[in-house]
Amino acid sequence: MTSLLSRFKTSAAGDAKAAGKDAQKKKEEPPPELTPLEKLLQNAGPFGNTCYCNSMVQALYYTTVFREHVLNYPPLSPSETPEGFKPKVNVVVRAPQAENGTANQANGKKPLTTAEALARRKQINSGQVIPGTQQGIKPEDKPDTPEYKKKQAMLKGPILELAQENPGAYGMDECTFTGLRDIFMTLVEANSRTGVLSPQRFLEIFKRDNEMFRNSMHQDAHEFYGLVLNDVISNVERNAKRLYEQEAKRANDGLLQSLESAFSHAVMPTSNGVNSPGTGWVHDIFEGVLTSETKCLTCETTSQRDETFLDLSIDLEEHSSVTSCLQKFSAEEMLCERNKFHCDHCGGLQEAEKRMKIKRLPKVLALHLKRFKYTEDYSRLQKLFHRVVYPYELRMFNTTEDAEDPDRLYELYAVIVHIGGNAYHGHYVSVIKTEDRGWLLFDDEMVEPVDKHYVRNFFGDKPGMACAYVLLYQETTFEKVRAQQEAEGLEEVRIASEKADVATEESGQAGLTNGLTRQVSQPNAAPSDDRETMAKLAHASTAPGMVLSSPAPPLPAPFNQVEGSAALARSQTTKAEPKSKEEKKEAKAAEKARKAAEKEELKAKEKQKKERDVQLREAQKTEAENLKKALEESKKAVEDESSKSKESAGPSMGILNRTNRGSKSMSRKSLNFLSKDKSKRGSGEAPTETAQNGEAVNPEKAPHTPKIKERFSFSLGRKKSHNVLS
Amino acid sequence: MFVLPPPPRYPTQAAYNAAVAAGQATPMIETNNILTTPEEQFLVGEGTYVLKEDLHLATPPPHPSEAPVINPNPLATTPQPATAGTKVSLLSFAIRPPPPAFFRLTSATTLSESIAEHPNESRESHDAKLSSDGEGRSASFSDGGPSTSVTAVSAPAFGEGNASLAPEKTKDANKKRKPKNNMTKSNSSFISRVIINESFTKKLADRPGDGLFAFANINRAFQWLDLSSPNKADYLTKILFTKAHCLCHAVNRVTKGPGHLDLIMGFSTGEIIWWEPISQRYTRLNKNGIINKTPVSEIQWIPGSENHFMAAHMDGSLVVYDKEKEDASFNPDEEEATVDGEGEASVRGVDHLSRIQILKSVHSTNQKTNPVAIWKLSNQRVNAFAFSPDNRHIAVVSEDGTMRIIDYLKEQLLNIFNAYFGGLSCVCWSPDGKYVVTGGQDDLISIWCPSERSLIARCRGHQSWVTSVAFDPWRCDERNYRFGSVGEDGRLCLWDFNVGMLHRPKATSVRHRGSISSRNTNLQRAETQGTTASRMRSNSGYSGLEGAEDNIQGISISVPVEPRSMTATIPPVLTKKADKDPLCWLEFTDESIMTSSKTGHLRTWQRPSDNPAPAK
């Protein structure tokens, strides 16, 4: 222990290194006694590895059109709901309260007093490590760390788990779609503002259908996105087919034949990506059409081929913009040497010129930034840290002449961020623009409001290895964008003026408070340490009910009812508020105030945004009659109502029935571009994929604890500042 | 008063090692500017531009009392302070000949007011009459105007007619007012330290009269360089600020002279410093953000004014300050009552797309203190603005993707133009004032003609956001314009455009489809205006525009986005990877093109020597 202490002292001085050393120290520490709840949390790690899913599902949930469609499909007919009311999702709510109590006692710690907490927070804010307290405190016990917030979220609950479903509730077999729909349904229906929802059930189903995800390796969020959408497409099509068959059966006698033939006409094209009534909504939202024009250089014949896509995978260049990368994507390309083009006209392999253009723009444009590049030297995927800027709004330059609405305006609404040094480790979070709460950061069970500028932190050049990986843009109009900008600004102005009043009263102390409400520099690595030490225990204790994929303790996804998310974060911020006000009075020395004022100006803007949610909510509760706030009020009220009305919509359950994902839908995926890549770089990407998958699948067929453990310690040694898994 | 301890001036390696061993914050070592001459060049029609030198300005280490908080959590929501890449203000005491192309232009055509005197020119002629100082700024400007060779009607001075704006008479009319505080002896916690070159006075005395000075910001440092000195890497003065970063700065060209310079700097804290470099005196304005707390993104002297300058704050307001006035906390509500009926009852409900919100008018009678005027343009950050050559208008670009043309004398919003998508980051006027060029986050440069309310062309060539645009007046004439641009892609692009040569793409078949042309009426209007009559009478400057102003009360003054299929596209005549880092500033001088990067590389590209600039 003495060695530990001395090490600790040095780290306290060189604050930058403290984080890493902290992590090391953790490793040597004997595992403290655990409470059930802590187990739960730590289990999230090794099993976990669901951040790819959490970040994507959140993004899909906030894709408004998609959410609406998922919730309204399948259209419930009386025959489907014999009980006469709408089915409900089976949700198990675990009450975290009791465990909370035991947790505190078991730790043998008294809750921090206000002053203590404040002092500590201050230290953390200034980037220092707290010498005394550090010893026994785990990262999740330090206020204002992501770990702490996550723990609080779990403590606060409710923790919702989707239970084993009622068979046939939607009249559909259990599949990825029903799993997703259950999650959406639960989110919409939940009446508490905060809470954590476990995606476990959904993942089970998903993994059942997608073999390569059946391990606890670090998964690719973009791949997940493609597979989920394809699953949803095939599930919906399958269901449509089944419905037609039912119809056909009901319509007995001679009609049967004609109906069947009619339906087969209706359904068959669907699988080719053409819409059929009732099932085409996924295509309508996400699918676009690319045209590849190939001009044979021998006979000058131009041939065109249309392909559909669900997302565009774009190559990156240093110091470029997404716009320009997209244009590169459509740049002309020579097909020669090994990649000659088979010309039907000349009848043989010929040199040709090829270019890809967009013929139909999708409503939701998913851009996959190819940050992972296979390097021969290392025979592995390297992560590219190129600085690639992305604008809040976007139009596409590379459309064909006859494209409909070639100037369609898109707005950025979700950024899936990959944090980590390469493709095999890391963490995913998402930053999503919600309809009512502005931009939110979703980090597994933590949700935090962020300001608009925060979205620009992931261009790739900032320290911390956090880069935008998937960008989701949705169709919008110029007028909407303008209106939104005005509204955003109005909020800022309102808060600025309130802020100004406060500032004059308290001579700018707000600067300090400001820092306090913010999340602080904490290494994410530490918790994974704990997980490591806990791995065996965890697996022993929490295995019940896991069928397919190793022990499955709930890995909670932040669950938001539209209101919920921000409120969760808010609950933390508000806690900080009153304390900091006390402190303000203590530190009224004029000099300090002046310094703080300077600080405050810097941060004022960001702070306004952050606090906006807080104030809004408070205003809503306490000053409903306040005319000044009437505007926001009424808006909110409408939202509340609408979300409540959604709650009354009925969910249901599916039966367990394995649906095969057709290879057809697979081809609809972005893998389309493999061909292009290949031709570009000869050996291209395909080997990469297989290499990755192979590696991913083989050693992990049956996940063992030791395996996981090994991986953990390895990655820990490499990078200390990140959550290695999850 | 608590004073920050001055950092060690020349920390030794031993001290550094000791500190590292003791685990303390290490004393940082000042690095020096580095001058190199890498061999690079590029070829354009007129000849070869050669990289003359690369001056790398040293990025100062963080202030010891503000140890950098290294946050290992990349998701930390801690706000980062606003910062900006290196921007440079160039200045010469001597009267440099204005671009000859410009002269030809002005004498050959009797343009109306849209061609006013070239800024330099008028200011130079003004310089000679510095003694008339005490007359007040409006008077001194109006006697500067007619003295130019151009037949242009001089624009009235800003705030003319407002008696309360006239400066107090000084006892000695020839003596310029200096800022209050001595910078070297300052114990302000805002300024960390000031380093003046040891042979400062000698250097100033020995230098050629027409040599270029450069003022440059980098991180928390601000440097004053003499580009005509053989040792140009040695700064004349270097100011280190404690925490605030200087984001923008400007030199007053009216008051400049061998014994006096008025320089203003805008900071990330919203504060503004008026600095007189020769006597090393300064004044802090908007102290502690008493008038506006948001960072200053752009600052410029009002053309022809000795005292007044305009600052763009990041909350979307433009504020006019008087360098000599005291700050007073500003309450818009009080002020509005005194303003002529323009006052809004509340901040809310203002339609920023139809007019500017005048929180305080320049015509307000209450002019004892700063601010002189405050206009709220929108709620989005203003990124840059530029004064028109005729000194009547400003073009303001914002983060919301708008370019506003404002008659700042009348405090009136004339037009709003919209970027193709994304925010706009930079703007400049053509030397004759006919065109405005903007660059932004759509990777495009757009050429606008404000008098026709139309988009002339979009320029495609950058691979990332455009950060700075500037015209090359030495290569512009009546019909042909040359301008340059730099961007986040580290590229320098040069563009030529000739109004007669522009063709709109033929693909009109698609124009009635799609989201943009849903606003058909407006589009039609802009279209007809743009293509027919008004293109011919582009000489008439703003007359068309003013006329339009009257009859558009009902219609939005906002010019809709033109679809791509309707717009001419210009390719660059040159694109050159001019730096490995993102570039952020560009300016043309008579002998070179100068660029600067975010990391502080100030590069000078010599103009072709086989075709020397006629000015030389």
Largest sheet data of chain A: 8 strands, mixed
Low-confidence stretches of chain A: 1-47, 78-86, 97-136, 264-276, 499-587, 643-726
Average pLDDT value of chain B?
76
Distance between the termini of chain B: 54 Å
Principal-axes shape call of chain A: globular
Instruction: Please give the radius of gyration of chain A in angstroms.
Output: 27 Å
Can you count the beta strands of chain B?
35
The amount of beta strand of chain A, in percent, is 15-25%
Helix coverage percent of residues of chain B? Answer: 10-25%
* Biggest sheet record of chain B: 6 strands, antiparallel
Detailed description of the structure:
Chain B: One of its GO terms (biological process) is carbon catabolite repression of transcription. Chain B: Interacts with creB. Chain B: InterPro entries: WD40/YVTN_repeat-like_dom_sf, WD40_repeat_dom_sf, WD40_rpt, WD_repeat_creC_regulators. The complex is a heterodimer of chains A (about 725) and B (about 625). In chain A, the strands form seven sheets. In chain A, strands 7, 13, 17, 18, 19, 20, 21 and 22 form an eight-stranded mixed sheet that branches. Chain A is globular and about 70 Å long. Chain A is built from 25 helices and 24 strands. In chain A, helix 10 (about 175-190) crosses helix 21 (about 630-645), helix 12 (about 220-250) packs antiparallel against helix 13 and helix 16 (about 480-505) packs across helix 20 (about 590-620). Residues about 1-45, about 80-85, about 95-135, about 265-275, about 500-585 and about 645-725 of chain A have low confidence and may be disordered. Chain A is of the alpha+beta class. Chain B is mainly β. Chain B is built from nine helices and 35 strands. In chain B, the strands form seven sheets. In chain B, strands 1, 2, 3, 33, 34 and 35 form a six-stranded antiparallel sheet that branches. A five-stranded antiparallel sheet of chain B has the order 4-7-8-9-6, with no helix packed on it. In chain B, strands 5-13-12-11-10 form a five-stranded antiparallel sheet, with no helix packed on it. In chain B, a hairpin with a 3-residue loop joins strand 24 and strand 25. The longest helix of chain B has 12 residues, at about 520-530. Chain B is globular and about 60 Å long. Mean pLDDT of chain B is about 75; it is low at about 5-15, about 105-155, about 335-350, about 505-555 and about 610-615. The chains are: A alpha+beta (about 725), B mainly beta (about 625). At the A-B interface, helix 1, helix 2, strand 8, strand 17 and strand 18 of A face loops of B.
